[in-house]
Structures are given as C-alpha cells and as structure tokens.
Amino acid sequence: MEKLSKLVLVLTLLMYPLPLILSGYWERVLASVFMLTSLTYAQNVLLGYTGYPAFGAIAFFGVGGYATAILMIKAGLPFGVALIVGGLVASLLAFAIAPALMRLKSHYFAITTLALQIALAELFANLDITGGAYGINLPIYRGFLGTQIFYHIFLSILLGSFLVNLFIEKSRFGYALKAIREDEIAAESSGVNTVLFKSVAFGIMAFITGLVGGTYAYWITYIDPESMFDPLLSVKMFVALLFGGVGTVAGPFIGAFSLELVSELVWSKFVELHGVVLGVIILLVILLLPGGVLKSRSG
Amino acid sequence: MRVLEAKEVTTGYGDVEIIKNIELYVNDGEIVAIFGSNGSGKSTFLKAVAGLVPLWNGTLHFGSERIDELPAYERVKRGVALAPEGRHLFLGMSVEENLLMGAWTKRDRVKQNLDKVYGYFPQLKEKRGSLAGDLSGGQQQMLSIGKALMSEPKLLMIDELSLGLAPAVVDSLAQILTRINREEGISMLLVEQEVSLALEISNRAYVFDLGRVVDSGRSDELIKRDSIRKTYMGLA
What we know:
The complex is a heterodimer of chains A (299) and B (236). With 299 residues, chain A is mainly α. Chain A has 13 helices and 2 strands, in the order αααααβααααβαααα. Chain A has a two-stranded antiparallel sheet with strand order 1-2. In chain A, helix 3 runs parallel beside helix 5. Chain A starts with a helix and ends in an 11-residue tail after the last helix. By secondary structure, chain B is an alpha/beta fold. A 6-stranded mixed β-sheet of chain B has the order 6-7-8-3-9-10, with helices on both faces. In chain B, strands 2-1-4-5 form a 4-stranded antiparallel β-sheet, covered by helices on one side. In chain B, helix 3 runs parallel beside helix 6. The longest helix of chain B is centred in the last third of the chain and has 18 residues. The chains are: A mainly alpha (299), B alpha/beta (236). Chains A and B meet through helix 7 and helix 8 of A and helix 2, strand 6 and helix 3 of B.
C-alpha cells in the first residue's frame, strides 16, 4: 500500500508538465479522467472510510457548479474565489443535512442521497436564479494559460483529494471514520462523537465534489440541471471506486484511470456500445473482484 | 457513595415503551447484576445509561453529576463504559487498534492502560496484531471488555458476558472480572442471562420483568430464594 500511494503521488506530479507535449484531444481526455478520479476520491472518504454510500453525491457536484456559475455571473466574482465559495456552499449544505440524513445507513442512505440529487435537479430547473431549464452560460476563459488551465485545476483537485485520503488513512481523524465504518455502536461507546465525525466526512466529500462541479461548469461554459445532476456520473464514480478498491488510498486512482481511459477509447470507436461496456465492467467487478483491484478489508 | 443512581427511568424505541420507572443504584466498588427474561428491558437500560438511547423520563446521576442530558461520548469521558451486547468490535481492525480506539477519550496513559489490559488478558497480547474478526468468541469478549477498560471507567457495564460462549470460558472471564473489580476498584453493572453466574459474582442484583424492576436485593439472599431458583435458575 505504501508503495502504491507513493506511485500515485509521483504519477500525479509527473502529469503537471504533460500539456507541453499533449495534443488538445488528450489534454481534454486526461482532464476528464482527473475529474472522475477526484470525484472517486471524494466518495472514498465517505463510502471507503466512513462506510456511507452517497449514491447521489453528484447533488453536490451540481450545487458547486451552480454556486460557482451564479457567483461569477450575478456577483461578478473572479473564478478562483467563486470556485472556493461554491465548494464551501456544497460542503455547508452537506454538513447541515448530515445529522438527519446519516441516521440512515447503507441502501437507505444511498437512496436518500439519490433522492436529494433528483430533488435538487428539479428545484434548479424551476428557479429564476439558476436560469431554470435553460441553464446558465458562463464566460469563456481567455487568459494566457489557455485550455491548459482546466487540466491543471482538475489535476490539482485530484492531488488535493489524494492527500486528503492519505491523511485519513494515517490520522486519528481517519481512525474515527474507520471506527464508524466498522461498527457505529462500538465507535459511539468508545467515546467517538459519531455525528460530528460523519458529518465532517460528508462535508469533505461535498467540498471536493463541489470544487469539481464548479471547475466543470467553467470548463464546458454552459450548465443546465440535466448535465449538472447527471445520474450516469454517479454510476461511473461508483464503478470506478468499486473497481479500484474501496477504502484504499490508491484504489480510486487505479479505478478511475482505467475506467475512464477504457470508456474513452470505447466511446470514440463504438458510441452505442458505451453503456454496455460500463454494465459489463460492473458485472465483472461483482463476480471477480468484490474487493476491487486492491483487495480492501471492508470489501 | 453511589457511582450510578437511576430514578424513574423510562424509555423505549419509536412509540414502544420498553422500560418504565426503573429505580436502580450502584455503590462505589460494587458489582451489581440485572437479570430477567428476554425482552424485559435489561439491555435497553444499559444503553440508556451509556447514552445510546435517550430517556423519555427520569434522571441518571453519575457520582454527583446528572448525565442523562449528555451525549454518549461525554459519558465515556466521565467514566461510563459499556461492553455492548453482541460484542460490537471493529472487526476489520487489529486487536491493538481496537484497544487504542477504546482509549479514544483517555490519551494520557495509553501505554500503562494497554499493559494493564494485556496483564488481565494475556491472550490478547499474543493476538495483538490479529484482526478482531479472526478471534474466537471468548477472545472477542475479552477484547470487548479490554476496550472498555482502556477508557479508564469508573463504571463498567457488560451486556451478556456469557452470550454464545462455552461455560469454561465464561467462568474464567467471570474470575477476571472479579479480579478487575477488586484490584482496580471499578464498579460493575452486568446484564446476564446466566442467573447463577450473575448471582455468584455480584453483590446485589435486580430482577427485570416487562420493563419494570420486580425484585431486588443482596445476591447471596436472592440465590437462596425459592421463587428465584424456580423461575430463573430451573431449580426446585
């Protein structure tokens, strides 16, 4: 594990100068790989370490994306500030609803978060400030860094979310989360403030997911409820996490990279087969790798 | 001096009332047992004391402090420890990690407390690197008690010590508990189905039935009483 984490760190750092030699196509492909990897790392904080499957985590992708867009357009904030505040908005929302939501566990929790995602999509499709079903147009980035900037922002979010996972793996904070995952009653009777810790984990997940959503919004320059609350993104994130290994530091990286690269290749060659491949991967993971590529303890 | 004093404790789950007007106390250094049939509310009472179930009515005092409004983790800090029914351990963590989790609220003397627990349960020391999930039932019960001891409790509550364990294992665990009680001065509140065992190791006992205290007294007197022997021990 130690070695794999170091490998992930080195690979991540090595990818910073890559746009110098990459074509625009591969720059975009890798940016979307980084995006999925970051989302998977965010989910790993919650499902992997805390044991709560937030199947509708993309709700916070949407909230982060919309918050960033609205802050840029209506409040005129620069992107960097809008992005951070957008992430915080997603995170605060999560932290506020966590004590109630996280009284539910496993399937019930998963379904409730999905309901949240769908409800928010409906809400955002009917509000004035979000542009309703028409969505919001964002300005196109015309700075001197060009499109590379999105590659680097996504890569930095990936790096940050990897470091968060690494910290959780090693720290006392992480032990509290793992204790909640293993047995919440035992954690509570050991004196762990379970409500606080799992709410913080939920907030961290939402913060990273919101940052990714905000960056995505600026990257594609147009958002609507359908694209920002896309259930397929939830599915991809979960498949990547299960494939790589739940509750491991290197798992999300391995899972998201292999899934997104394979899916990109299939997508470019056989557009209509894309969904089939995703389905086949899910089946193979369940049948052959129930603990993911890196066999996890919680698997 | 009383470690624990429960007055008119009433609680339940959802709309269903499980225990009503429980009056119970534990003196400093005492071992007190609770027994009674299934569904009589014994475990619910321990959970209420630990803070895992909120009270509907009544009060709980720990020493001189009222604790029924405090969350579970605050009660652990003050010295209320529960080894829950079914042993609730962190099965994916090692034995030592489980014990360290037990020391979550007491981080000053972790090393000494660890040595102390290993002293009482040498088997845990041998298995310190093993996953808790790989231990035998008896070792898991030791770990559950050891984990509770790591929080330096003043009151140790054990829910169903004998659950699913061989009689010989239960006997040796009971001996260790009386030793811990004597040497550390830790008061204990035990919920136990095995009534003869409960009465042998305790100073006093309470009989629960349908969520109420129906009998109580000194254990050496209860054990001689015909009604108790007939109803709870299967003896004439």
